[in-house]
Amino acid sequence: MSSSLTSINMSGELFDLSLPTWNNKFGREHIEYIMKNGISFPLDKFIDELDAILDSSAPQDDKSAKRLARQTFLHHCYESIELQNLFPLFCNYLNGCGSQSARTCIFGQYENSPFLITVAGGNIITLFSQLIVNMIDYFIKTVNKFRGYSDQNYEYWDISSPRYTPPIFHQSAIDIKDYMFNTHFRDWQQSAWDIINESFRLLTPSNKFLLQALEDNSDFHKEQIAFLIVSHFLNNDHDGSVEASLRFIAQSPHSDFDFKLSPNIYPTLIEDEDSEDITDPFHSIEQLISRLNDASEKEMSQQFPPSSGFLLLRAKTLITCNIGDSLTKYTTKQLKAFQKDCTKQLGGWVYSLFPQTMQQDYLTLVDTSSDCWKFFNFLLQKKRIISDSTRNNIDEVIKFYLAGYLKPDRESPINDTGGPPAPQNLRQPNSTEAIIHYLKYTTYHLNIYLETWPVLSENGGAPSKSYGDLPSIFSYKKQRGASNKSYLNQCERAYRAACFSFLNLDYILYQNTGLISRIASDVINYFLNNPLFHTEQLLDRLIKSVNQQHGGLCFMPPSDVTLVPTNRSFSASLKNLKNIFDRSRYSELGYPDGLRITINAISTDSTPSQLSQHQYKPQGPPDDRPNKDEEYAIRVASSDDKILTEYTPLNSKNEVLTGGSNTGRNHLHKNKTKKHKKYKKPKKHKTKKHKKHKTKKNKTKKHKKHKKHKKYKSRKLLQ
User: Fold this and answer.
1) pTM surpassing 0.70?
2) Do strands 595-603 and 309-323 pair parallel, antiparallel, or not at all (unpaired)?
3) Cα 12 from chain centre
4) Beta-bridge partner residues of 7
5) Helices marked H in 11-122
């Protein structure tokens, strides 16, 4: 191989799972919203989060413009009754629709565990905006067609495709648009009804399903609801700024796949609101919130209060390429010298800087010939590599579900939780549906795993059970002969115990032999090893795609795990988590090559406080936003020799199956690995009988809303 080629590691984010704490501002708000809404997030949740982030004293960064656009977009959505009601349904749908939704979405909740995994991050807002754009685009296309100007891609829509061009009203069609926007439904001519019926027919499947569900609790038909949403964005938008802001968000790239593990919805909110066995659930929630706040305040008044922050478990792809000098090579000694030059010029805040917090405009602060400029430029290069690698991961997920695959039923992998076979046709019509399906499918199966975890054994899908089983205080399992009232009381006790387990970071790491952190470790093990999630297939496609870009000079090394605390008191707990992953080296599963697992205990009360008063101050770790905190944890750990960083190489599937050592690091390609052995089917545990989804003949209770919000009824007339 030519000496001009150098080895470079390309690592991109694949799966993030964060665990918030009650004694952290952002963590408390997230848990409180989940208590009251479960997986049916209201718009307020994200409006409040963005308001808090943008109102903080943190400096502007490369995500500030996107956050501001999202904030404006969500506030505009809040002005529409239809969108206020659609958004919780969308979030419920994106989170898998609940325990009883194996075959079809019933817009329920996960009923059989005090713990819950939900989708997090920017994809929620991006996907919602794309569904709205889908309604707008097809309305414009249909109106134009009724004037005889048919789009050549009339029935094709994929906002992420290079072929996509936003449609605009033809000059001759504007009078139809204005007539429809300014005339009440009761006065419409038949042609107007034909237009909204045709535009609804063209909508992407998720839009059709959600609007049908919204129709069940509305005075309007689904076609009318879609039109009202279109009108909300296009009518009276004289300068086009509202539509422009919407399209800016909708055409933003999908972000990496973030999830959160937290307490579930308050258990009695799942029950029939007319049941005589339950008291006012919101009164019970307020009492629990008061108790949690009192306990947290009492702890914070101690001389040595427990840590606030969050636990972050991240799976990243790792590819090594022998390619040209795309990244300037410096020794560790050189980089430290460059960094020291920066601190002399700009102050101590540079020590808290790492690739993900590096901003392009920092280069303008120093001379281009200085060592500090070399340090900043190196960080930017690494940031681009991480961003590009993460983009590749997202693109492979989209392509995988766009292409889909067909598999005979008799060969379907059986869900190890006793659930139904994996879907036989995963093909999706566009990139929006591909991401929605991936998040929906992943969240559903992770939550079913959470519900099943108590009955699994150490060798049957829950390796962390070696440190202890689920204490009975957390159990939702109904005892034989128990009345419904006593069962609800049992669930409430279990739920309160679960909430207190998230009171602070120390509880997550140590309480009940680190139960919460152990469950999180089992979740990421399950995600990476179970064929339900197609992780190995995605990795095979990824290395093939990367080698096509780089001439076959790349390979995936064997997987490994690194555990990094930001506080020396966390080391013992993370060592236990390291041992859980270490056992997988000798299990029957092993890991696919090309994974780097990192587990960080991020203490937000250890954020560097001695910053320069220079106008540029890169923020420390966001309170519970994980996108920038992994390298922050490594930086803190390396500055304290009492903090123990753990590293474990993980056996690949080749090594497990052949009994020999894996030589993946010396190969220039990733060999296909053998199929997983089928999981043992665990004991089936009891679940509550689910309520039927509301149809025209069978009605269920309406979607529950946050107590403080007035229940709106859809407008009968256009405003």
Assistant:
1) yes
2) antiparallel
3) 15
4) 322
5) 25-37, 43-55, 64-78, 81-94
Tokens of 393: 């991961």
Please write the tens of the pLDDT for every residue from 251-283: 999 988 999 999 999 998 886 555 565 678 889
Mean residue pLDDT across the chain: 80
Cα separation, 424 vs 406, whole angstroms = 6
Q: Can you tell me the distance from the alpha carbon of 609 to that of 612, in angstroms, rounded to the nearest whole number? A: 9
Please state at what angle helix 174-181 crosses helix 222-234, rounded to 10 degrees. 110
CA pair distance 337, 577, nearest whole angstrom: 35
Q: How far apart are CA 512 and CA 469, in angstroms?
A: 9
Tens-place pLDDT, residues 523-568? 999 999 888 898 988 999 999 998 988 888 899 998 888 877 767 7
DSSP structure string for 127-165: HHHHHHHHHHHHHHHHHHHHTT---TTTT---TTSTT--
State CA 505 to chain mean position distance: 21
Q: Is the pLDDT reported for residue 687 higher than 70?
A: no
User: Rounded to an integer, what distance in angstroms lies between the CA atom of residue 105 and that of residue 93?
Assistant: 7
Q: Report the candidate in 499, 436, 476, 511 with the shortest Cα–Cα distance to residue 93.
A: 436
What does the pLDDT read at residue 600? 86
Backbone angles phi, psi at 315, to 5 degrees: -110, 125
**How confident is the model over 360-379, as pLDDT tens digits?**
888 888 899 999 998 998 88
DSSP notation for 595-607: EEEEEEEEEGGGS
pLDDT score at 651: 61
